[in-house]
Amino acid sequence: MPDRARAIRIGNCSGFYGDRLSAMREMLEGGRLDVLTGDYLAELTMLILGRDQLEKPELGYARTFVRQLEDCLGLALERGVKIVSNAGGLNPSGLAARIREIAAGQGHSPSIAYVDGDDLRSAAPQLGLSPGALTANAYLGGFGIAAALAGGADVVVTGRVTDASLVVGPAAWWHGWSPTAYDELAGAVVAGHVLECGCQATGGNFSGFASVVSTSSTDEPLGFPLAEVAADGSSVITKHPGTGGLVGIDTVTAQLLYEVQSTAYLGPDVTTHLDTVALADDGPDRVRVSGVRGSAPPEQLKVCVNELGGHRNSVELVLTGLDIEEKAAWVRAQLEPRLTATSVTWSLGPVPPPDADTEEGASTLLRCVLQDPKPEPVSRAFSGAVVELALASYPGFTMTAPPGNGTPYGVYRAEYVDRSAVTHTVHHADGSTEVIR
Amino acid sequence: MRAPLGAFVHARSGDKGGDANLGLWVAHDAHAEYDSRVSWLLATVTPEFVRTLLPEARALEVEVYALPNLGGVNVVLRGLLGRGVAASTRFDPQAKGLGEWARSRYVEIPEELL
Fold first, then answer.
1. pTM for the complete prediction?
2. What ipTM goes with this model?
3. What is the pLDDT of residues A108-159, one digit of tens each?
4. CA angle A193, A79, A65 (to 5 degrees)
5. Could you tell me which residues of chain A have a Cβ less than 8 Å from any Cβ in chain B?
6. Phi then psi for A114, rounded to 5 degrees?
7. Which residues of chain A are within 8 Å of residue B103 when distances are taken between CB atoms?
8. Please, are residues A315 and A405 in contact by the beta-carbon 8 Å criterion?
């Protein structure tokens, strides 16, 4: 049971599908936590999972999370750390079933809940969403996760909840917040937003990297972040002792300003007013977040829609030495008549300085990117046309790699639906279901 | 004097669909002129400034949101990434390096702030 007298300690072990596999174990072993979260879903990831599922309907979830749990489920249970993740992607029930198999195989019997209702593919036409959408997922809030934890879940997997909901849900459960506790929820959204990209809060992708290099041991990889979220929604962002990287006002600011739009940060549970966030030093590798104000969320829910945009391919030609622009012009003139794709984009890198004393320094890249609704114009027809010029074009013709077969690409766009169009549902471990609002 | 914006300004950039997002804020490096630097940054970064700083955005709609509490601004560059990360033909389709490009650009900065 939550001890509401103290802050809940929520860690993060993944900022995207493909993040450090060992992070789950590192976060479980590195210090005390109440909940360990992981974000596996980006807009592009939904498309990747959608394509996985076209081939194998039983997939559609983040498979790296399964591998992490195979390694760490017993450890998490032993330490009493609950696991909350959006790794369910397009198939949270399938992921929950897979985890039950793993648990049974290892002789564990955890309580596993999943949250769904975000997937609007089947209802897309009635909702006015594009009928051809490969994926269409409403961004759900944290109260499904909170209900799952209140129901005793040890592991909660979801589909498309907002990244911050992975922290909002556990904090709302721990502190018993109501859906109108907007300031508290907004405080947790800020903590969640800081945590959701993993090491981007601890010195990764940080323009002050020189301070990370000089103050932190390069023997240790950057640690993943954690937040201590208090009952009033304020928090301290920190990391486990002895891990690499640093947590400071600048690393936290960097993540706060990442991928936000206006000063009002809209979410399904609360509108968070970023111009109210106060950051303060709270000791080494500790930053206090306070003062955050929230207000009622928008009436409608945002939907992440991915459609198949077409097919693409590209090549990088290496141009070296004298007459770079003339060389580029000739190879373009040779290739263009043979390219049938609807979109052909060329870009030439910087012209190298004269008299360079390395071959690389004397070289630049000419990129050609093709797009077409059909696969043929960007696949073999393109790679053939390029490769056939190898001995028949500008002097020094070479490529960074031969063009491949081309790949399909998606187009993401945001849509909005009424809340009534979405049935945000918790599936508890005992098989019962609970609809949120 | 002319100096790189990154002399005391940090940045982080990323994508939201076809829009690029660029956060700029004054580094907490214990410099005595922190408050003046923040005032300068907030007064300097306008949509027009961003379009000049990053010529690839010169024809785009640019929005600037002041966040004095964080000592910086959030900038949204509408449509820089075309139709979004998977569809973009840009050299850096997710705008990951946009912030570092912005920091490397030379701008006029009052000498007492450097």
1. 0.94
2. 0.95
3. 999 999 999 999 998 888 887 777 788 999 999 999 999 999 999 999 999 9
4. 50
5. 43-44, 47, 200, 205-208, 248-250, 253-263, 274-279, 291, 309-310, 312, 314, 343, 345, 347, 367, 369, 371, 409-414
6. -135, 155
7. 207
8. no
